[in-house]
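Sharing a chain and its predicted structure for anyone who wants a worked example. Both blocks are below, sequence first, tokens second.
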Amino acid sequence: MISSPRHQIPDTPERWDRILEKFWQKPEESASSTAMILERVRKTAAFLGEYDFPGPDDEILDLGCGIGFYTTEFAAHAKKVTAVDFSQSVLDQARDRNRRAGFENVDYELCDIKTLNPEERGWSRKFDLVFSAMTPDCYRYESIRKMEAMSRKYCCLQIALSTTFDPGINIMRQVFGSENVRLPDRRKEFQLLNGFLSLEGGFPSVRYYRDSCSVPVDDEEKYLARMLARAHIGECTEEQMQRLRELLRQRKEKGVLQTRQDWLAGWILWDVREKECCPVSG
């Protein structure tokens, strides 16, 4: 339902294992990103708190739980949390995080939303809230239907709508042209999802927010390689690489290259009970 085919990268456990491995290898990046994620969790908790979630009697499903930031927040307030991810190593990190936090009300399930069968799992109408943050596999029509099948009250998606990288993507546009450097932008699809759920009677609540992080770069070549990959630049001549290096050098201050990443994200929360009592006529 929400997709950007040109920029779609296959989601696999191996890919996320590699991302996390690189993440922990750079303490300065992981610290900055962790601070940004914790702020995102705080804002999410405030948003859900407006709808009295999570409550002491609630059971919550955290789909694509990652290393457990949201799981920990939910476990502090809910009766039970089920944390799901398709990577065992990621799930192990989530388990360790919540063990250190002292929570024993969390179950961990190795599972892929693409192949998940709610009925076979015994998860039909089991959870008060089915939640997923920044998990592209949950944006598909089939996944949204599965989320609804597992919820007895609400579903909530947190979606990265657009991202900018400075100076990386900006210098890419100078060298390759803006028309050739495009990042995934899900804002229109997000609005379509809101309209679709509204037509079905889900009465969705939508909220937008921005966050950012700033990280110094010590390896300019690796940084350029990451930016080229994000911009989906296949061929790059040596002349173009030299130009990119020169532009990066011009952005240094006192010999340090400071980079910035800005996010626009959104939440969409809907009540599956409203959809059941307000069916769309065919």
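Comments welcome. Residues 27-49 form the longest helix (23 residues).
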